[in-house]
Structure formats: structure tokens, C-alpha cells
Design a protein that fits this description.
By secondary structure, this protein is of the alpha/beta class. It folds into 2 domains: 4-170, Dihydrofolate Reductase, subunit A; 176-364, no CATH class. Helix content is 33%, strand content 18%. The protein contains 14 helices and 15 strands. Bound molecules: NADP nicotinamide-adenine-dinucleotide phosphate.
């Protein structure tokens, strides 16, 4: 069966609407909406229909209402459906080849079609915006980010925003990331030894001790990083970087959960990309791509965007904890061909957030902090 694709623009505090309208002017996002939906069907709630300037050209409109006669009658060019089931049935019976069904809101519609949807076109508006309509719970643990593209503020766009494309239920075995087995254990051992860390390798199929995210992700206990051939290199580096950034007392206590605050988590993500340059055949670009594929999520839209544009606070923490000289050595030491990184100059929002991890069991316990829609006025929490 063809499934539903959701398309939404959401502020950092979950707001999607205000006073029956959009609370921003983002012509870049409207262009994206038009490009994606033209030639297809739109499924919307009655209030979203009323918020539109009129019938959108070259798109079939299916408007949900439980009582069309009580509310303003719908134009005859629209299709009225009294329930989601009726709307989907109508679409399946009438859609042409290749025609897609986009749920375009509002809040209740997203909530009702969430389980029927396999794709999410999510525009993250990088601002806290006042409003009265919120996106419902956004739990992306079983979703996979395919693509993201950041757009900056200009005279036609009130806020910076990032357009992300997510698909549901990506099989983790299909995510092609570099693994420790690809790199080989000798270079890994040498790298970790520079930071007084050891690696303990489990045999294929054997458990990985002290893994927070679940196998095949790496584990950490004291100064030992646990991994297997199929452990993604980004995961091994992530756990190692936690151990590198804590003091001796905290390192001695490390066991499964590295703890630390959001700034430290952000710094770990920066450091793991820098240290990837010291592994032959890996490099920061590869690890950044692997992080995106694995489900790390950054307000800057991608791991590379975060490293280059949005990690000022993380660099500060790295400088404080490692010392400027050590950091300069790490960030410039590059056995591959990539240039040394340039620290971002603009103000950092930080905001690294790890949304999901394939095969994770411990991650399930993080459902609360991974719910992206904070209560109005509440701070976001990172994993
Ligand atoms: N940022 C974005 O991407 C985005 C997207 C869409 C909308 N918005 C904004 O969100 C606001 C409107 O959204 P909203 O959440 O208030 O309203 P809405 O979801 O668009 O419409 C709600 C109405 O839809 C009908 N409805 C809902 N579920 C139904 C079902 N299962 N069966 C039959 N009818 C059903 C009911 O209409 P009746 O009352 O007629 O029965 C209900 O009152 C506006 O501010 C709009 O600009 C933003």
C-alpha cells in the first residue's frame, strides 16, 4: 500500500501555528512545499484548509471535517472526508500511478496519521516561536534521516531553517557505516593509547560489555572501550571521547553511561570527528556522514554543519579540558587529505541530539528525553 507522507514546518519549541495561520514567513519552505506536493494529493484538517489562501494549483485537496454543514461549506473542487479511513480509502481508489498522499496538518492530523506514515518531510525552524498549535510528540527513534539542507535568514525568510527528510524503519544492517573491522584494530589501539585508553575486542557474535546504546555500539568502563568488528567507528570514537574529556576521577567511575551535560556531549561529537582524521581511511567527513546516517541529529542540519558552523561552545569546552596546544595538534593533525578545521566564529546554539540508535535497548529508556516536542516554555534536553 502507498503510505502517507507527512510534511510540516516546526519551531524548536514545537510550534506549528498561531491564530489560524503560520507564525513565520519562510518563502524557501513554501517553495519546498510546492515542489514536493505539486501533482499529488493533500490531506488536511478543516482548520488548515481555512488557513490556505485558496485551492492550491495542481493538487487534489482532501479535507477532513466531522461536520461540513455546521462549518463553512467546502468548495466543490475539494473532497470532503469524514474520517482518516475514508480519506485514505478515497485516495487509494482514485489516485493515479505515482500519485502520493501528503498529510499537511494540522496538529491532530499529524497525530492520527503518524502510524500510517512512512516518510516525514520536516522543516526545523531554528527559533523559539510563540504560537497556539503544536506538533504532537515527535519520537524519531525508528526513523532514519535521509537528507537535510540548511537555509539561512534573508529578506524572504524570517528564520534559518533546515529541511530534513526522514523515512521510517530503516534496517540498521542497511546503514553502511565504517566499522572497527574496516579500519583494523592496530590503528585504533594506537590512537586510544595516546589518551591512556585501552580497547577490549569481543569475538563476533559475543556480547559487548558496558554498551549504553546496545550492540553493536561500543561500551565504556573506566579506561577500557569495548567493541567488536561490527562496531561502527563513530560509536567507538564517541565512547572514547567521553573518556578523554572527563577528569581522572570521573573516568574511574565511567560505566555504561558517560553522563555529562549537553555542552560536553556536543564537545564529544566534535572531538570524535577530529580524531577520525587520525584513523587511516576514515577522516572526519566519513565519520560525519556515518553519524548522520546513524541518526545523530544537529540543529545545523548535519554533523559537518555542526562542526563547521555551530559548535562554538563545544570548542570552548575542548580548549578548556584538553588545553589549546593539544586541541590545535588534534585538529590540525591529519594523515588524510582534508584540511584542518576552522572553528566556527558565529554564536553557537549547540544542540547535538542523538535521536536513535539501531538495535538499541538502553535507548528505549530515553524515550522521554528524545521526545522532541517540549512542553511550551520548557527547555529541550539532550540524550
Ligand atoms: N507549520 C506547519 O507545517 C503547519 C501545517 C498545517 C497547519 N498549520 C497551522 O496549524 C493550524 C491549524 O491546525 P489545527 O491543528 O488547529 O487544525 P486542523 O488539524 O487543520 O483541523 C482540525 C479539524 O479537522 C477536522 N478533523 C480532525 N480530525 C478529523 C477526523 N479524524 N475526522 C474528521 N475530521 C477531522 C475537524 O474539523 P471539524 O471541526 O470541521 O469537524 C477538526 O476540528 C493553523 O494555524 C495552521 O496555519 C501549520
Amino acid at each position: 500500500m502507498r503510505s502517507i507522507e507527512m510534511i510540516v514546518a516546526m519551531a524548536e519549541n514545537g510550534v506549528i501555528g498561531r491564530d489560524g495561520d503560520l507564525p513565520w514567513r519562510l518563502s524557501g519552505d513554501l517553495r519546498h512545499f510546492k515542489r514536493l506536493t505539486t501533482g499529488h494529493s493533500l490531506l488536511m484538517g478543516r482548520r488548515t484548509w481555512e488557513s490556505l489562501p485558496g485551492v492550491l494549483p495542481k493538487r487534489r485537496h482532501i479535507v477532513l471535517s466531522r461536520n461540513v454543514s455546521r462549518n463553512a461549506p467546502l468548495p466543490t473542487s475539494l473532497v470532503h472526508a469524514g474520517s482518516i479511513a475514508e480519506a485514505v480509502e478515497y485516495f487509494l481508489e482514485s489516485a493515479g500511478a505515482g500519485e502520493r498522499l501528503f498529510a499537511i496538518g494540522g496538529a491532530g492530523i499529524y497525530e492520527q496519521v503518524w502510524d500510517l506514515s512512512s516518510e516525514l518531510h520536516l522543516t526545523r525552524v531554528h527559533a523559539q516561536v510563540e504560537g497556539d498549535t503544536y506538533f504532537p510528540s515527535l519520537d524519531l527513534r525508528h526513523w532514519f534521516k535521509r537528507d537535510s539542507q540548511r537555509h539561512e535568514v534573508d529578506d524572504r525568510n524570517d528564520y534559518p531553517f533546515t529541511i530534513e527528510h526522514w523515512t521510517r524503519d530503516q534496517d540498521p544492517t542497511e546503514v553502511d557505516v565504517s566499522t572497527c573491522g574496516d579500519v583494523g584494530w592496530e590503528p585504533i589501539r594506537r590512537l586510544l593509547a595516546d589518551f591512556a585508553l585501552q580497547v577490549q575486542v569481543s569475538e563476533p557474535g559475543r556480547p559487548i560489555p558496558a554498551t549504553f546504546w546496545g550492540e553493536p555500539e561500543a561500551g565504556i568502563r573506566g579506561d577500557v572501550v569495548f567493541a567488536r568488528d561490527d562496531t561502527p567507528i563513530h560509536s567507538l570514537l564517541h565512547e572514547a571521547c567521553h573518556a578523554i574529556l572527563v577528569d581522572d576521577e570521573r573516568r574511574a567511575d565511567l560505566d555504561i553511561d558517560a553522563g555529562g551535560d549537553q555542552q560536553e556531549e556536543d564537545a564529544v561529537c566534535v572531538l570524535q570527528m577530529l580524531l577520525a582524521d587520525r584513523l587511516p581511511g576514515v577522516g572526519r567527513k566519513r565519520v560525519a556522514a556515518d553519524m548522520d546516517a546513524w541518526g545523530y541529529s544537529f540543529l545545523a542540519g548535519s554533523a559537518t554543519g555542526f562542526l563547521e558552523r555551530d559548535a562554538v561552545a563545544a570548542w570552548d569546552l575542548l580548549r578548556n579540558r584538553l588545553g589549546a596546544d593539544v586541541l590545535a595538534t588534534i585538529s590540525s593533525r591529519n594523515p588524510g587529505s582534508e584540511p584542518a578545521s576552522v572553528e566556527p566564529a558565529d554564536e553557537s546554539r549547540g544542540g547535538q541530539r542523538r535521536l536513535r540508535s539501531p538495535n538499541s535497548t538502553n535507548a528505549d529508556e530515553l524515550a522521554d528525553v528524545q521526545n522532541l516536542r517540549p512542553e511550551p516554555g520548557a527547555e529541550e534536553h539532550g540524550a
